[in-house]
């Protein structure tokens, strides 16, 4: 736009040859002094550089030259004032563009009314000075005057020493708004390309034509409702005043303007905008991050991938959802779906239920409960025609036909409708579940998904649920999780933070507050490092429940540097269709080191570590519990570890490679460890000394090996004569196999240090 052309404005000052009576020596206002007839100013008709020009002698500290014409100032108008000046003789001054802001007949004070000064350094050298004046204050504008002035008087100032003589070419004032409109209003309007905006006419072709013609300019979508009948990709920056209407399956890919606020504006609804932005994220868009820009989005129903991207069954490129809040709004969409059905289980098909009654009504992703079902077993898939259900884990209860309950929780983000999702990341996001919804259900398969620096507040049932192997390599980093059951006694809580069916999960530097169970982990290779999970309540002599549950025997995992507060690490094999030991790896591969373990107001039978075999014949074959701190407050507990024999006991004759040492005990009655060094004092001479280690051997294990025996002081016989021989030892003695017998060739008395262990080292 150029108002000099479109509105016929005459911005140009007259040439000096037309007379000096319109050139003020003051501010240019009506009645001010002019240079007409002045002894210090004269028109020069012929100059080698300028042709006709004004010759002016500088006699004042600031010598002003202003055109008395009223140059309009209005929004969107950018004026450039240009002057060409050269020094002729005398002192060399500086020159700058200057103006005088007016509103009606009054001066508008407090504004910048001068441009940058340029020194005249050589006689005869032509110097050009310019300045831009506008309502706007922005880069490139020298005098941003705002909305108060209506017009201005413009010219130049000569500053510096007096006495010099300069010549000035005719001043130029021109509209340079085009320089700025490329950024400010450099856009194309879809209406110019045939868009109707009536909500029914398909305007897709018009949008595509505007995009093709934009050439780097933005596309303006004006007021109206624009129907786009199929998937549309736009390369240009977008500005939405009106809104779009699209079929659910049609994608809108904003290749340049890809962020949540733009999608929310495009559809006139934040929740729909989020769904369409996620749909584009899992399609092709020139971005891998969906940024909510700190916005809070009200979510009225689960975000299910199959509803807004039904053709996306597998996705393996990195995608990130970040920087905002998802706030769950109450409604029937969050209600659990519960189905009870009879089905048959066979050990030969460990993850399949057959003959499932009412199978069509059983939702994929439903939580399975019933006799013989371990914790956190879910429906991975179903076949209605074959009446089968595929489970996430085997059942320990053996073959048979039973009645099961299938409960489908509702999740804010639900990827169960996909086959596979890899490398999906959530960062700096807050799930406000409000006791109405769970947070995130994984796809049946996938790996390297992550949540970091995020919060999940008051989830109803679950935080993360894996219905298959979509949890492989899942990462939790620097997050906080706050339960909806904080005032509920620990034993009555139902919520779970995370279940895992695959391997190599890393849970680091996060905090988990008062859930029913924090982690239920199958698979191996897990690292749980630097976290704080606590499951206490306000009860006295309270029941404490499992917080971290391993559900297979050989876990190859580490629990290191955590704060484990008022809950149990429980190790089971409940996800095994044949839980009795049968030439496999038994309980092994677990390292628990450097943790702080605390309980308060807890019954004496509480322990921080429990092994619970679901079948017979199992044993420990690799366990390190070392350098931890165990502390009981407001009451003591008996010991730190136990074997839960609800289903079966361990085979203590096969335990090997157990290291439990270097731990610190406070408020714990039995200081169990293995290896353990015990002092035995035999005050009366006896041929067999009996050392009872039952108070020290972990898990009620047997005294299986003696690593060393040292006499402390002299060993004497009944006559007080020194005995120099060493005894031989018998291990696994007594009714509980927890005694070591030291056998001497004669009756002796004295003191010895015995180092023994409840296992075979290798």
From TrEMBL:
Top-level taxon of origin: Bacteria
SUPFAM superfamilies, sorted: Pectin lyase-like
InterPro entries membership: Pectin_lyas_fold, Pectin_lyase_fold/virulence, RHGA/B-epi-like_pectate_lyase
Rhamnogalacturonase A/B/Epimerase-like pectate lyase domain: residues covered: 188-242
Molecular function (Gene Ontology), one example: hydrolase activity
One matching Pfam family: Pect-lyase_RHGA_epim
Classification via Gene3D superfamilies: Single-stranded right-handed beta-helix, Pectin lyase-like (2.160.20.10)
Keywords: Hydrolase
Protein name: Glycosyl hydrolase family 28-related protein
Species of provenance: Thioclava kandeliae
